[in-house]
Amino acid sequence: MNELVTGHYKVVVIGAGFGGMYALHRLRSEGTQTICFEAGGGVGGTWYWNRYPGARVDIESMQYSYSFDEELQQEWSWPENFSAQPDIERYANHVADRFGLREDIVFDARVNSMRFDEEANIWHLTTERGDEVTAHYVISATGSLDATNVPGFPGLDSFEGDWHHTSQWPKEGVSFDGLRVGVIGTGSSGVQAIPEIAKTASHLHVFQRTPAFTMPNNNQPLDPDYEREWKDTYAERREAMRTDQGLSMFPPKYGAILDMEPAVREAIMEDLYASRSGFNLLVAFNDTMVNAEANELLAEFMRNKIRSIVTDPVVAEKLCPRYAIGTKRVCLDSGYHATYNRENVTLVDVRESPIEEITPRGVRTADGEYELDILVLATGFDAVSGSLTRLNVTGVDGLDLRDKWKDGATNYLGMFVAGFPNLFMIHGPGSPGVLAQMIAGAEWQVQYVLDVIHDLDTRGVQRIDTTAEWENKWDAEVQTAASYTLFGDTDSWYKGANIEGKPKSFMVYVGGYDNYSRRCREQVEADYEGFVLSP
Ligand code: N01
Predict the structure, then answer these.
(1) Which of 47, 173, 274, 303 has the greatest number of C-beta atoms within 10 Å?
(2) In contact, 146 and 131? CB cutoff 8 Å
(3) How far apart are CA 35 and CA 179, in angstroms?
(4) Quick one: pLDDT at residue 277?
């Protein structure tokens, strides 16, 4: 859709990633007047923007896909166990075409303001390109990892070569052939991009501040027999996923690692390390995320893997993370550590010698200048809350969402914000979002939101809000759940610690999707406890 859009809609959806597309599909199917604004030129959300080399999903594709339509899941075939970005984007396009979603998606239309009209109980939305609409309800499906973080390196503008952030990757691709490349950042994006870039760069310098724990994805072309097994029993498997803590299917747990004889636990860890997904190792034991001693056994197993792969012992030690494994997002990799055995790859430890500036010719650290032709920033996101605050949202009494969240992204049930009525967040702060299978999580939340909207319609309610008191109660549940785990011990984007000046507060509900979904339903069933409904 190209022409400028005006008029009134019952529901406006922001974002045509997997959450937004599903919301749009459901709304269209029930005949609701709706429209979706998408900042990008195509569908797929995170899989539209993050097209850096090596970008790949880390949940098996048979799971990381929509469950809502049996024919869709039967007809679609994934080429690999863990599909690469182009295949996931192809899938997103297939879904958009199959369900006719493009008719109601406005592309290249970044929402740049949202203002709530308290008299009329409607939202006014505008986009950068000039669309102006009103809506009774807004579903923000803007993604948890969408607001790009470009650290304020002095001199970045003076760099004479090209630079690219992994999450704003040019559609036409980037050639590294014969070039001196620098990559800053070794989170999941860096871990996936570095082995690919190293293949053609004349030299690659990796600027690492914190090493990452990564697990092998042991990726393979999808075995047709395995695919058949899944497709024959998709309904049961999806049901099993829905009742899982992380909305995923993993092999059964082994119990507590601390209770095991060393030889037994080593054998189990070796088995899981070589299994279909390295994540099996992360979720195999029931104590590794809650007990520091248990965590250290798994962490040291993974450090020994790094030591066994990386031939230079000094480099190997620098690549060994020292925090509790799992407390920063673990990544699945394809040959990441082996990349440091290549002669054309050098690790630069910027914890030891910090980056001082970007110069016209490269990167200067406390140690000296590294000359580069091209620079890649794999420096992550203003995660979870950043994609919402940058929409310029004004709620009741002219309250700006940035002011509301200046001390932390308060919310109720991860979907509602007091003072911002009739706004529903998908994967917002306070929800399990990024720590569950995100397509399944979006399907659940969209269903919940639509159930609430239908119920409000039946009751003749025009406006749904919550209160600061109930935001605090929900935050207590979120923080309590986190306090049983080791998550709080490490600075991570889960708690906003990667962004200078962002308040540190843990933003993800880690009590399990089963508990989360129960709590959300309970509060509605208790006659909308914690909500404020106005006729
Ligand atoms: O971002 P990150 P990401 N100077 O924030 C470093 C998902 N994802 O894009 O840790 C020097 O994890 C920073 O260092 P430190 C996944 O959920 C999934 O990689 O802050 N370095 C870190 O090393 C993931 O967690 C997949 O000390 C600086 C890196 O940049 C999330 O997206 C693939 C710096 C940023 O790592 C984000 O991953 C990719 C500075 N000033 C992403 N500022 C899948 O596999 C930052 N860094 C599905």
Answers:
(1) 47
(2) no
(3) 44
(4) 87
pLDDT per residue as tens digits for the range 53-77 = 999 999 999 999 999 999 999 999 9
pLDDT of residue 412: 98
Reading the block at residue 336, the tokens are 């990441």
CA distance 169 to 326: 27
Residue 261: CB atoms within 10 A of its CB come to 8
Closest CA to 210 of 104, 331, 291: 331
Q: Which atom of ligand 1 is nearest to the CA of 355?
A: 4
Instruction: Specify the pLDDT at position 231.
Output: 98
* 345-349 and 122-127 beta bridge pairing: unpaired
Amino acid found at 35:
I
Our answer on whether the CB atom of 190 is closer than 6 Å to any ligand 1 atom is yes
Give residue 190 CA to ligand 1 midpoint distance, Å: 7
DSSP string, 327-340: SS--EEESSTGGGG
Q: Is the CB of 186 under 6 A from ligand 1?
A: yes
Spell out, as residue ranges, where the chain has pLDDT lower than 50.
none
pLDDT for 248 equals: 87
Query: Which protein residue has the closest C-alpha to ligand 1 atom 26?
Result: 188
- 210 C-alpha vs ligand 1 centroid, how far in Å? 9
pLDDT tens string 279-307:
899 999 999 999 999 999 999 999 999 99
Given the CA of residue 209, which atom of ligand 1 is nearest to it? 27
Sorted by sequence, the CB contacts under 8 Å of residue 156 that are 6+ apart come out as: 150, 163, 358
Q: Which tens digits make up the pLDDT trace of 210-261?
A: 999 999 999 999 999 999 999 999 999 999 999 888 998 887 789 999 999 9
Residues 6 or more apart from 154 whose CB is under 8 A from it?
356, 357, 358
Q: What is the pTM of this model?
A: 0.97
192 CB within 6 A, ligand 1: yes
User: Residue 210: CB within 6 Å of ligand 1?
Assistant: yes
Closest-lying ligand 1 atom to the alpha carbon of residue 59: 48
In contact, 214 and 336? CB cutoff 8 Å? yes
pLDDT score, position 252: 76
Q: What pLDDT does residue 244 have?
A: 86
* Closest to 105 in 3D by CA, of 131, 87, 66: 131
Report CA(188)–ligand 1 centroid distance (Å): 6
58 touches ligand 1 (CB under 6 Å): yes
Q: What is the pLDDT of residue 2?
A: 75
User: DSSP state, 56?
Assistant: B
Residue with the nearest Cα to atom 37 of ligand 1? 380
